[in-house]
Amino acid sequence: MRIVLVGPPGAGKGTQAAFLAKNLSIPHISTGDLFRANISQGTDLGKQAKAFMDAGNLVPDEVTIGMAKDRMAQADAEGGFLLDGFPRNVSQAVALDASLKAEGQQLDGVLDLEVPEDEVVKRIAGRRTCRNDSSHVFHVTYSPPKEDGVCDVCGGELYQRGDDTEETVRRRLEVYHSETEPIIDHYKAQGLVVTISALGKVDEVTKRAMEALKKSSDEG
């Protein structure tokens, strides 16, 4: 299956992408991983991306699209893939459509993870990260530390990252609504969008997603 995963920040796309890719036996391709791999390997596209990022600028669509096309052409993606964070706007979606068409392929589905805006803010603004190890993450509501402000693992100080504040989250949501959300209408016109609620436990959302994709595939 060739799937695009869409949803606002805080919808759990990264978590769901990993589970879905494993269940479907297809590679999980995320924009962040594409950038890191190309930059660390010193590819031409990686050098271009790094130059823009070092200058504090957004990486142009053509660079991101080039990285995605290279990754989708690799052997492990021959039987399908799950795209997470790409396409991020309509022009990237159009380029993806054209690239797949040129290969005689097409998307099988676009999974839209739906989460109320207030829940997104609650999920992200409630995160607390350990200063000693950023992989130690807690949540004031969903997974609070035993002692307020103290990491259960190493005893380090827990703090709220700058990009986890409510103000920053609401700005990120505005960008999502203006830039990324329009791709849902783009794909709805092709009959590809399946929308599910991303509320509930991780395994419940994964089950919901798998059932929705299977139903969509059967109907298609």
TrEMBL record:
Molecular functions (GO terms): AMP kinase activity; ATP binding
Cellular compartments per GO CC: cytoplasm
Signal peptide range in chain numbering: none
Catalytic reaction(s) noted: AMP + ATP = 2 ADP
GO BP annotations, alphabetical order: AMP salvage
InterPro entries: Adenyl_kin_sub (IPR006259), Adenylat/UMP-CMP_kin (IPR000850), Adenylat_kinase_CS (IPR033690), Adenylate_kinase_lid-dom (IPR007862), ADK_active_lid_dom_sf (IPR036193), Guanylate_kin-like_dom (IPR008144), P-loop_NTPase (IPR027417)
Keyword annotations: ATP-binding, Cytoplasm, Kinase, Nucleotide biosynthesis, Nucleotide-binding, Transferase
EC assignment: 2.7.4.3
Gene3D superfamilies: P-loop containing nucleotide triphosphate hydrolases
Segments of this protein annotated with the region NMP: 30-59
CDD domains cross-referenced by the UniProt entry: ADK
Metabolic or biological pathway, per its Swiss-Prot or TrEMBL entry: Purine metabolism; AMP biosynthesis via salvage pathway; AMP from ADP: step 1/1
Location of the Guanylate kinase-like domain: 1-214
Name this polypeptide is given: Adenylate kinase
